Amino acid sequence: MxxxxxxxxxxxxxxxxxxxxxxxxxxxxxYTVLEGDELEFTPVVxxxxxxxxxxxxxxxxxxxxxxxxxxxxxxxxxxxxxKVVNKGGSARKETSITVVKRDSPPVIxxxxxxxxxxAGTELKLNPSVISDSEVSYSWFMDDKEVAKxxxxxxxxxxxxxxxxxxxxxxKEGVSEKELSIIVNxxxxxxxTSVYTIISLETxxxxxxxxxxxxxxxxxxxxxxxxxxxxxxxxxxxxxxEGEYQLLVTDGEIKSTxxxxxxxxxxxxxxxxxxxxxxxxxxxxxxxxxxEYKEGDTHADMVKKAQEWLVGEDAWMxxxxxxxxxxxxGFDHTILNIPGKRDFRINGNAFGADxxxxxxxxxxxxxxxxxxxxxxxNKNGIPDDDEWYEIKGSSNFSAEKEPWYSYAxxxxxxxxxxxxxxxxxxxPTKEAPEIIGEPDNPNAYMTIEKYIRWEDNKNNNGxxxxxxxxxxxxxxxWLKDNQLTFKGIRLPENxxxxxxxxxxxxxxxxxxxxxxxxxxxxxNYPNIHDNSGIDIDWAIDKDGNKVDLPGIDFVxxxxxxxxxxxxxxxxxxxxxxxxxxxxxxxxxxxxx
Length: 591
Description:
It contains two helices and 45 strands. It is mostly beta strands.
């Protein structure tokens, strides 16, 4: 038998043109031939220019002509190389030749081990089969016979991974070739509404796959979050209506889906919509912000806190001393947008007009620690939902705060306690000693040993009752004689800087409460970017960074235990809460 491999040859020999290196084409990468047959090669050489030719078989010279006829004499695998050299340079092309022994089972070639196609697209499979006797064919897909022809057209509409086997049979035996075909396609669309977290399900044909990855391909807005992208159940949320196209893959199968986001049926507010709990620690504004009335219960005070905090025109409430807290919610999920601050809880922090020269920002900075949660069980209340800590700049150490050396020099307690616990004891007396004329407001003196406290670090002390606020500082609606809080205690940030204030003698009292760099409530003025909070700062109970799609609930508690002279205790105050994205405010984060 004689096999003729025909190619069109050409010779470029224009002496007026620049001499270029030859280029070889017309030779395949692999050939299979029966023992005793021949292959005729007529390659195409571009930029021939009076070239010299060389053919080698396994490194041995075989011919020096442009055309070459290979004779398959002995079974085996061989390497055939064709080399062209001229004044412009050289070129080399290698091909492998498999010589098959006669009276052998069929040899199947020109089929790849893996193919990738789109769902519904035809894939024409036309193998080369070498045999010296008649061959019968069988194609099997997932162990089911689907064709009896040499050529097979593969076409399926369902994305997934398919196994295809070709069996070629002659009188000498059976040969098999197994193919893996990846079918990519689009899976069912999902509908949702703006500001709503949905869980995405990995399609059934990928459930047994590892290393699942999700990616957003196209979106009508930057207001979206795809979290836990390397899991089988990521979460998605968007703040603008439209079609969002997502890709899911295990590295082989690629499938897309559309998430169609519609407007919300209910009108949504960018401000706080609910107060779930409120319990301040003893402090000078307790029972005033909001106001306690005789007979009010805990539920009554929670309701009052809600009346003061809900909406755009919110009023300020106090959290009192260390540990005092409030738990609030929004009527939608606040998106966690990568690289942006996501929400803000206003306070009453402000900068000082006086202080040491060149000092960092400070004034009245009374940082509240932030906890966040999303409504995982979708019941609208923070019950069984996991809380995450917003990792502010000093939640683990304050050594990077620009005022840290001042605090150390001043003798402040600069430790961070992450397992802190403090118990306050109900005061035994409320009225201060009166010196001078009762009608003179300066006659009222403070109570230095007013509300006793103890912590779990073998420390104790008293909250001081000052001359400016005469009501009880202990939450009046509580019947218990002691009140315990747990959480993180931040370093003392208040320093008496009276000696730096012009016109005030050294030794006078002028406390500056220095600001922490980021991550707290009532720590920077409300108009300052550092009052904004990035949900991506959230960590779990073990200190690990978490990938939250957004949050529905916020808990704020006072993080500092410090008396500051006539200013009184460090007490976190909060006011309006804001969804920055819904309000169209774009504030870059701190990484």
